[in-house]
Here is the input.
Amino acid sequence: MAEKPIIFSPVMVKAILEGRKTQTRRLTNKLKYRVGDVLYVREPFVNLIHFAKIDGKLKQDSLWNRNIRTILYLADIPAWQRKQLKGKVSPAIHMPKEFSRIKLEVTNVRREHLQDISDEDLRAEGVEVMRFIEEGWASCSTDRVIRPDREIFAHYWNNLRKFRKNDKWEDNPVVWVIEFKVLKRG
Here is the structure.
């Protein structure tokens, strides 16, 4: 059993924390994860930096240096407030292992074409019924549902990352499906 990092977007971290996500799909030729591996989740974060007077001068006093960690996770911040953090957010790839608040255990790994995702797997991916509002996509549980889950997942997949040629939903690439259970959520 190996311990390895895995990156998730704030939307998917929220789905894991809420118990809605137990599966992820990854584009890669090589199998990176095996059943039994423990994955620590990397996610976008803000490491709060404080300033203090040291020797009469105002200096940066990082709480990291004092072994006291004050971390804000982007998934916990409402989308409308995230704009205020522009330039202060550290990308998930830079998250130190000790800042990770979620650990997962891989329970199954398989390959399939992206569009072969079942309705059950859509739910395991954390997909919610959504509606369109002026600001864009937003979760809802009531009125004006305009897209079924499959279309929402396709929309999310296509807007999640920069793709190489033939990696979009419409291209139906072969993906690794990683199923997991949550060992720790913080």
In short: Residues 130-146 have pLDDT under 50 and may be disordered. The chain has four helices and eleven strands.
